[in-house]
Amino acid sequence: MKERVLRRQCRRLLRELDIQAPLDVRALCDRLARHRGRPIKLVDYPLPVPGEFGVWFASDTTDYVLYQRETTKTHQDHIILHEVGHIIAGHSSDETDDALLQRLYPDIAPDVVRRALLRRTHYDADQEREAETVATIILEWASVINYVAPQVPGGRALQTALNGRRGWL
Fold first, then answer.
1. Which structural domain range is residue 25 located in?
2. Structural domains counted in the chain
3. 89: DSSP letter
4. By CB distance 3.0 to 4.6 Å, which of 20, 55, 56, 160 could disulfide with 66?
């Protein structure tokens, strides 16, 4: 997908989700889950180092985002947004040793992990770029809006009215 199209698609979705500053990554995931009609479970997990910082995989009913437990909250948010980027960009899960997967990820069914891990080996550079572009769009917006949005007493309605054209333009 061309970056311009991806950016436009991402901005449209974020407007539909009505995400406002300050950015709360978990709230964004909750709204995206409701929008898509399937839960997104965020799981902080001590992923092996060196290795992936995050993994997204889909079961028949739920999307799971595993992210590195042993890093900063800011980095965790970026990891989550990158994995959500795969979801927003429309990347799909694929179909790997149940015993090993059960040891590495004891709280998640091996078939779910298997599909995710095999898929990760099949992502190409374009898909990784697309996922990172989505994360970057969201983080750029959040940093700009958090910086320029006035903190107005009186709540969100008044702040929204005074903010004018700021947001997911």
1. 3-163
2. 1
3. T
4. 55
pLDDT digits (tens, 9 = 90+) for 6-47: 888 888 888 888 877 788 999 999 999 999 999 999 989 887
Say if 73 falls within a structural domain. yes
Evaluate whether residue 169 is within a structural domain. no
Cα dihedral 9, 15, 16, 20, rounded to 10, equals 140
What is the helix, strand, coil percentage profile of the chain, to 5? 55, 10, 35
Helix (H) or strand (E) holding 43: strand 40-45
pLDDT tens digits for range 120-140: 544 567 888 888 988 998 888
Question: What pTM value is reported for the model?
Answer: 0.72
Residue 49 belongs to some domain of the structure: yes
